[in-house]
User: Fold these one by one.
Assistant:
Number 1:
Amino acid sequence: MGDLAALVARPEAWIALLTLIVMEVVLGVDNLVFVSILSNKLPEQSRAAARRIGIGLALVLRLVLLSGIAFVVSLTKPVLVLPFAVPALADGHPAFDLAFSWRDLILLAGGLFLVWKATSEIHHTVDPEESGDLLDKKGGATLGFGAAIVQILALDVVFSIDSILTAVGMTEHLPIMMAAVIVAVALMLVASGPLARFIHDNPSVVMLALGFLLMIGATLIADGLGVHVPKGYIYAAMAFSGLVEGLNMAARKRRKKPTAVDRTLH
């Protein structure tokens, strides 16, 4: 208890906490978009429960992983090494080794799942008549509650490991990490409802969000293969695309408003 009181009294601890909260919120955007899109495939009365359960599972997973930081850090150690040979350059001998850790394998699996999911949802949105799934009034494929929770949980694992490794790299104090995760997930829970409704009410935003998920999936695959793409580039592209879509939405609303001439004619 005395160590915790001493930590609270240190200004750098509060700076680290605020920085971690911002980082966790930014990293949680990917998870939140996925949860929002997936929950919108459910009947309306089940959507809020799916969001709460999905985000609640994300919080539990992150706190559990934080409690076993040593285990999480061990996930970065190589467990699979594949020798690669380039005959023209290495006379058939292994030119280099491609090493994979459990983290890399999880990122690869999560990235492939996200690319598959985003691609299938884009297909359902563009051409719903060719889908064998049940269709809702908006033309989107419906989804069972259990299937939605399983898919949310699968991505929670991927995003949680990435989030915890980022937190471990920024501070060594476990209470700060846990506090940042709790605050960030609470903010995600508050934002999930409005975000899901906004995506549901604006079909063009659905396609944009699916494009984001496709890009995030490709980034996870690249990261799993050892090619690190700075997160700042990804979120800058997402912010710019969101700004352009916001301008398009504003322009469409302006065009729909009756002008003074239209009112006179009617």
Number 2:
Amino acid sequence: MKRTTGQDRSITRHWRPATQAVRGGTWRSEMGETSEALFLTSGYTYDNAATVAARFAGEEDGMTYSRLQNPTVQMLEERIALLEGAEACRAQASGMAAMTTALLCQLSAGDHVVAAKAAFGSCRWLVDHLLPRFGITGTTIDANDNAAWEAAIRPNTKVFFFESPANPTMDVVDLEFICSLARQHGIVTVVDNAFATSALQKPMAFGADVVAYSATKMMDGQGRVLAGAVCGSDDFINNTLLPFQRNTGPNIAPFNAWVVLKGLETLDLRIFRQSENALQVATFLEGRVPRVRYPFLASHPQHALAIKQMKAGGSILSLELDGGRAEAHGLLDALQLIDISNNIGDSRSLMCHPASSTHHGVGPETRADMGVGENMLRLNVGLEDPQDVIDDLDQALCAIGL
């Protein structure tokens, strides 16, 4: 493999995001292909035994095994790092593999984590159930309460873990304040940025140490593959995260990495159009349902903060009805265009009832603590004409008497 002319990191890091999304991290073989090559191989051959020894000893660059390196995967990692403004990135098998790796690679028995109580169901499960099995305690707090973060710090607190915007409550966390507080106390911030992606929000610009992703969502953008990523400093990625990943194996498949590479080429175009569509849909819903949560609506409690931290509001919103699960399920069943699906970030509009899907596994008490009620629905607004999405919601609301 050879790299294309101009792929020196000192040059590519100065490219603007739209250029990085198309060309960043590109390698080319001697064939001179324009589209990134797909390397479906688990292993590699060597010219001689000395080369093998030198590569495994870290004395020579080169591939050894696809659990450690793969050309297609490394292209994805370089591109995501460039877009994020991070020194390094490691791709993962899924978003939850990324979250689990980002936490477990740096935590040990006796450590303590402070986490936002509003989170994706599986992320909350990590804090409440998985980490305690290894002697790692956690405190969940209202992430919107800056004072609560400081009050929750203990002498053994090692990590702050949160999403912004949060899934599905759309809570927006004060990145600058929380990351600064963490730095003052020697605490590592791990931020799940899947709802915004680096196209709309760059947590590291506000002081975050580690940014984790479900690349299944906006990065792929078309509901095709599972993928994840963790970004951070060279030291964190190579000396803290990589030993964990090397020996536990939550690796992304080369084909999935290739698909996400193709998705990144249109990320900027998709996420801004979907944000425009979502704002139109949210504005319509605000006049029809009891409550709508979308960061770029003036009615959002952290609207000013969202404007400060994000370039647009993203494709996701949540809404609440008064009739509980029965009414929420009735609305879903009345939809004609929007699909019932628990995925997000897709180019298609999708809607789900979190309490009976994405957050079912955490239980009713935890859902109540998170603010995920039986009356809540989450909507991913896609690339369809927004008026068609609005028309579908309008007829579905009429069908249930709203």
Number 3:
Amino acid sequence: MDDWKPRTRAAHGGTRRSQYGEVSEAIFLTQGFVYDSAEQAEARFLESGPDEFIYARYGNPTVRMFEERLAGIEGTEDGFAAASGMAAVNAVLMAATRPGDRIVAARALFGSCLYILEWLRGFGVEVVLVDGTSAEDWRAALTEGTSLVFLETIANPTLEVIDIALVAELAHAVGALLVVDNTFATPVGASAAAAGADVVIYSSTKHIDGGGRGLGGVVLGSEDFIRGTYEPYAKHTGAALSPFNAWMHLKGLETLDLRVRAMAESASRIADALAGHGAFARMIYPGRADHPQHAAVARQMDHGGTMLALDLAGGKAAAFRFLDALHIPVISNNLGDAKSIVTHPATTTHQRLPDEQKQLLGITPGLVRLSVGLEDSDDLIADIEAALAVI
């Protein structure tokens, strides 16, 4: 497996077959496991081997296949699955920090991530938020005593892109752990681990599942971090991934590379077709040369991703008319799906952020997030242009 390329690992990595020799991975829907003797039970609780399981909260054969397969694609030593992407983020931040610690994070984060950081402040953790696109801000903030750095490779929903290698160099110089949520970039678009991240988080609910079927998350990193820091917190607090969802996401990994590259190609075509349209105050796509962090995108990503941010000049009223006039993209708050999805962040996913914070982050009343799916790009362009004509 060490010599396999990511697409091969996505189809075969971590496979465990039962005595029946099944082709498709088995779903082990069980809460617990049976021991041949009391002595065997005692030995397993003292130290479990790689294919020895105790309880579904601690591990499961199907879940373990998913963990190992994704770790192999990302290029990390180990992984641990969680019930959702936010369960993974919460467990990492909780497990890796203590009162008196200092976290430096990019200010452009998903609202639930900002909520957890604020919660940690209440427990005596110092939290400093910076402009993630500013090298000067990172240099000023990353001082001795910083224990953890947290960022999203591509910010939700404004699609800012952070230079992971730069932040990794600064974080490691002061002994800080760099935690990167790489969900928007996907392991197909960018390897956060290769760029210098110590811990990589994915919401497998998104592109990895790819069909809007079930929640999931995973934390990837060194064996020391996963088993020594993360696992004790995760297994005792119980946000375990369902074996059925792990199986769905295993199946999603098999086609992840093909799907994401096709979606990114469509997103690029749509961005080029819409560039300069008079309905937009701005249009943001990381794959275009006019993206503010295009140099960072070129260094660390294989493509521009599957997401666009469309800021309608007419504000909320124009954004709503645009969403309502679309026929192919569905209005929802997920992303990374085979179906194209449009979201109005200011009134949904980021609704509860104070107005001044929305303004600071660039979440305007007219901003629409478009997650490009697997439909024909010509159909999507025609539908979007028709909806723009309505407004």
